[in-house]
Design brief:
The chain is α+β, with helices and mostly antiparallel strands. It is built from 19 helices and 20 strands. A hairpin with a 3-residue loop joins strand 16 and strand 17.
């Protein structure tokens, strides 16, 4: 079997199983456990006692919608949509596992939950079969393709393992109408297939406390509360990474030890999409909170009306200090983060016309050193002839006015750099009370707020013509998008949400 054929089959099997979900019928067999979580997500009956990660969904439709939302949200960064992914998979696999019709062709019941988990890194997926005969026929067909297989019996169930190439193997077992599939990439040492014994056999449910945290995240998203949710035991995963990492990388890995648990939930209804990722940091969260610098007092009011608003309020110097061991590992330096003397950055674009490069908006930064920004101002020809002094609230600044070309206000001192284009915007930016609880990061987009030509021009400046055209087309499928990173007590929370047109 060629490598390309093997990769095709591995991809087919993994995506097919990930997107397939069991019907909500009671679990049966020696490993089944009961409880409210299993009553809601039937496949959780087969999760071993202490998984390193776990994710699930109520139904295949919810799982597929969650995957679609993620691809549509972040795929625009590479100019791709969920439809593109589905068409690509159909070309490769002769079936689109992201669509319900594709799932039906695979013989999987489209209604029910799915569980994917691991006790190490290699994933196990458990689904209920609508047609065990179809599944059996598919896997029997694998044996006819020249793939080397071996079979053993555990708990009275035949477990078959196929070596695809190198250390890549896939194992499967069918017990009544349940299917187990395990993908091994040589990451975990498990010669006796203990993964199946632990999942299929009787086991405890220490995972329920961590899963409860993920359900709490889901409850905060929206009324629908439907989609993928789960958690990662980050310390367990970090321990595995340390065991395999070179010695000079240990110091970098240890920087992430404060993260105790990561929970996530994705919700949506086809029009609204939302997701939340929470990282349990313990006392380390207070270190991040103490390194946050509030934006100018009027920034929030200006940003609320802006088609594009972005803010980074975590001191770059603190980030450089945190990441220094990681850069040292690879022989690098964090100097590129601090060389410009900029500690934080915010920007809001209120209007932009690409034809004459006119518009309005603000930029604000906390500074450790004003030299770089001062050098940029010095590049304006004959600046002294078009510049005048102005007072903006308590801040001394300047106005640069070139008739029929540009008019801007700026403030530059040892700690602060502000720039505003638009009548009265600088005064609005510096007035008011500072935000006592600023986010670590926030990005807000109102897509109809700028013309397609404006989006294309801005994206073209940052990337290229092809990407700008593709990304703008995909952007206009959405009305708005929001990403926010905050500290909530001892937890770092990342919230993402958007509304389609």
């Amino acid at each position: 079997m060629t490598n390309s054929g093997a990769m095709r089959w591995v991809t087919f099997a993994m995506i097919s199983l990930v997107c397939a979900c069991p019907a909500p019928r009671p679990a049966s067999g020696p490993g089944s456990v009961q409880g409210p979580d299993v009553a809601e997500f039937a496949a959780l009956a087969w999760v071993p006692d202490r998984p390193t990660y776990l994710m699930t969904a109520h139904t295949v439709r919810e799982a597929q919608r969650s995957i679609d939302d993620v691809i549509d949200s972040f795929g625009m960064l590479v100019g791709a949509t969920a439809d593109d992914a589905g068409h690509g998979l159909e070309q490769l696999l002769s079936v689109d596992p992201l669509s319900e019709s594709g799932t039906t062709k695979l013989g999987i019941d489209p209604v029910g939950s799915i569980a994917m988990f691991s006790e190490g890194l290699d994933p196990t997926i458990v689904v209920r079969l609508a047609s065990p005969e179809t599944a059996t026929g598919f896997f029997e067909g694998v044996k006819t393709r020249g793939v080397r297989t071996q079979a053993i019996v555990i708990d009275g169930v035949e477990l078959v393992t196929a070596t695809i190439f190198g250390n890549v193997r896939v194992s499967w077992a069918v017990d009544h109408d349940w299917l187990w599939a395990h993908f091994s990439f040589g990451l975990d040492k498990d010669p006796d297939a203990q993964w199946f014994a632990h999942a299929h056999g009787r086991h405890a449910t220490a995972w329920t406390k961590s899963f409860g945290w993920a359900k709490d995240l889901r409850a905060k998203l929206a009324a629908k509360a439907s989609g993928l949710l789960g958690f990662f035991d980050t310390r367990a995963l970090l321990a595995i990474a340390r065991a395999h990492a070179p010695k000079d990388a240990i110091a970098c890995l240890d920087r992430f030890h404060p993260i105790g648990l990561a929970g996530f939930a994705i919700d949506g209804d086809g029009h609204h999409a939302a997701g939340r990722l929470a990282l349990e940091l313990g006392p380390a969260a207070h270190g991040i909170a103490s390194s946050l610098l509030p934006p100018p007092p009027g920034f929030a009011a200006i940003a609320a009306k802006a088609p594009i608003a972005v803010q980074w309020n975590l001191d770059v110097g603190a980030i450089a200090g945190f990441l220094a061991p990681c850069f040292t590992t690879f022989g690098g330096s964090t100097n590129f983060l601090t060389r410009f003397g900029i500690r934080t950055g915010r920007a809001a674009v209120l209007a932009f016309k690409p034809d004459d490069r006119s518009g309005s908006g603000v930029i604000a930064a906390d500074l450790a050193d004003r030299s770089f920004l001062a050098s940029q101002l010095d590049q304006i020809p004959h600046r002294s002839l078009v510049e005048s002094n102005h007072q903006y609230g308590a801040l001394a600044g300047h106005r640069i006015s070139i008739p029929f070309v540009i008019s801007l206000d700026y403030v530059l001192n040892d700690k602060l750099g502000l720039l505003a284009m638009g009548d009265g915007l600088m005064d609005k930016l510096v007035m008011g009370a500072p935000d006592p609880d600023p986010p670590v990061f926030a990005l807000d987009l109102i897509i109809p707020g700028l013309s397609p030509e404006a989006w294309k021009w801005l994206l073209r400046v940052a990337t290229n013509e092809w990407f700008a055209n593709r990304a703008t087309e995909h952007l206009y499928h959405w009305h708005d998008g929001h990403l926010r990173v905050t500290i909530d007590h001892e937890t770092l929370v990342i919230d993402a949400a958007g509304n389609r047109r």
